[in-house]
Amino acid sequence: MAVTDEPAREPARSDLAAPSKEYGWVALLTSALGLWASAALAIDYIRRLADDDYVASCDINPMIGCGLFLDSPAASTFAIPNVIVGVAAFPVMATLAVLLLTGARFPAWVWRGMTLGALFGVAFVTYLQYQAMFVLHGLCPWCLVIWVIMIPLFVHTAGRAGEAGALGNRRWQGWVKNRWIITVLWYLIIIGAIMLTLGADLIAVL
After folding, report:
1. Which is nearest to 125 in space by CA: 187, 61, 62?
2. Which among 54, 87, 44, 75 is positioned nearest to 138, based on CA atoms?
3. What's the pLDDT tens digit per position in 107-135?
4. Residue 81 has what pLDDT?
5. Is residue 13 one of the residues assigned to a domain?
6. Domain total for the chain?
7. N or C: which end of the chain has fewer CB within 10 A?
């Protein structure tokens, strides 16, 4: 038998390990909630275009409501209504989540694409959080739903992609192990920022 010094070939990255069911459910549930909130915002946006006197479904008081945001420049950050971005993006992630729950295995480039999409989403949400707290000085209930779901969606997607080897050789075990702790700490930071910037005024109008 011939002996060769050729190193063993690495397994193809097109057949990465199947994800846990937990990730599939997290991705599906967060995407479904994101689509629901985006669709509700889209309906209010369309009705507001048709009727200047229309009151958005989630308008509660001068500081809590959707109308303030739908009428602002931040509602069309990329020259198209933000609601279109959500209505288009969340079904894609939900479909991928369903495929994962059925046992599908994705190539590395799909995991990278999912991670980039989730990163874009959480970065966009962070920008909108800044607009809400420092520019518009109010909160949009439907936007809050999207804020809440984008954080675990990004944390879990990045952790899963890294664990699968789609994001290089960096060890991701710590990130994956502490994914819920990272999510909760992120929430606490956002809540703290809201209380510091809007807390007194929110208490006054409630």
Report:
1. 187
2. 75
3. 989 999 999 999 999 999 999 999 999 99
4. 87
5. no
6. 1
7. N
